[in-house]
Amino acid sequence: MTRHNTGGQPPSLVVVGGGVIGLSCAWRASAAGRRVTVVDPEPARGASWVAGGMLAPITEAWPGEEALLALGVESLRRWLDFAEELGRASAEGAGLRQRGTVVVAVTPGDRSELDAVAAHLALHGCVVQRLSARELRTVEPAVGPDVAGGLTVPGDLAVDNRELLHALRAACDLSGVTFEHALARAVDGDGVDVVGGRRLRADAVLLAAGAYSATLHPALKGLIRPVKGEILRLAHRPSALPPPRRTVRAVVHGSHVYAVPRERGGLVVGATQTETGFDAAVTVGGVRDLLRDIERVLPGLAEYELVETGAGLRPGSPDNLPLVGRLGADGPLVATGHHRNGLLLAPITADGILALLTDTQLPPELAAADPARFVGVRG
């Protein structure tokens, strides 16, 4: 929807938010010929910077969330092309890891939960394989003796979130995206007000500010909320056992924990999930619980170095689906509410926003993410 473009120049787009969603959309739009500005005081940071990096629509699936499963599976299908195109556009690696995932259980009750998820996935044609404890340790020797069994999910992949962010920032720079290192105060369909009294006008505006999106447009109030997740980064020491080769997800006495390998022996362990508003402090209890649970599964990690703790604010929505579309007839475009799946859903979200900008066909899986499903954002 063009409002201000009068000089024969390519249409302009302002993207509010420089996380993985905002940068992916900005890169795609700029590569398609738009003049793009990203507004963010610290692009390529925020929740995207502290993410685990799982691309896991299958192991994140839950009964009753079939639309989210379909959306995630389709976005994962697009990920290989997305990574290859990003690598060419940025001259950097996108950080994609394709070794798959194992999901393990400690107690019989934990195993029952995994069996229920496996049965649900089988109904939707998702490939998983049940494994005994012995079979799991053959597949992934780092798994410890407390593990009672689990699943292997070769289709669920991972990405190094920081490599991805560096590549997206480079691709944006090389394609001509400009960055406004400012804090947005309000967003509408015509532009963005930034702190300091300036207004940035554009032919189109995209609100992709993650957990902060609801503070920038009244239609999102009560729809987008911050969900804190704490993570740990570990480094392998020469005296310690080798790290797992695959992503390891686990259920430990009903609690969920994961370890995602990085290059050169690094691991990301996460993640807590608490709703405490915009409090992003790392807590002693969060660190304790993550270490306690992951050691039950991968006991060799006790000898690793703890190199970083961090917390991010995921953007939650009422139904766990993102909001991707337009806020009313004359409002801005929006891409937020991705909760735990921002990195996974980046390719399909960027494709969807580009389709809306060019009036072309939206990926059908994104129909469930239309903001109009909530009465308060209808036109």
Outline the structure in words.
This protein is an alpha+beta fold. The protein folds into 2 domains: 160 residues, FAD/NAD(P)-binding domain, CATH 3.50.50; 146 residues, D-Amino Acid Oxidase, subunit A, domain 2 (D-Amino Acid Oxidase, Chain A, domain 2, 2-Layer Sandwich), CATH 3.30.9.10. Helices cover 29% and strands 26% of the residues. The protein has 8 helices and 20 strands. Strands 6-7-5-15-16-17-14-18 form an 8-stranded mixed sheet, sandwiched between helices. A 6-stranded mixed sheet has the order 9-2-1-13-20-19, with helices on one face. A 3-stranded antiparallel sheet has the order 3-8-4. Helix 3 packs across helix 8. The longest helix has 25 residues. The mean pLDDT is 93.
Can you describe this structure in just a few lines?
Helix content is 29%, strand content 26%. The chain is α+β, with helices and mostly antiparallel strands.
The poorly predicted ranges are none
CATH top level label of the largest domain:
Alpha Beta
Q: Compute the number of strand runs.
A: 20
Helix amount, in percent? 25-40%
Strand order of the largest sheet: 6-7-5-15-16-17-14-18
The CATH superfamily of the largest domain bears the name FAD/NAD(P)-binding domain
Going by CATH, the architecture of the largest domain would be 3-Layer(bba) Sandwich
Please report which band the strand proportion falls in: under 5%, 5-15%, 15-25%, 25-35%, 35-45% or over 45%. Answer: 25-35%
Summed over residues and divided by their number, the pLDDT gives a mean of 93
What is the CATH fold-level name of the largest domain?
FAD/NAD(P)-binding domain
Task: Determine the oligomeric state from the structure.
Answer: single chain
Indicate the overall shape.
Answer: globular
SSE run: EHEHEHEEHEHEEHEEEEEEEEEHEEEH
Q: Biggest β-sheet, characterized?
A: 8 strands, mixed
The class by helix and strand makeup works out as: alpha+beta
Count of all domains: 2
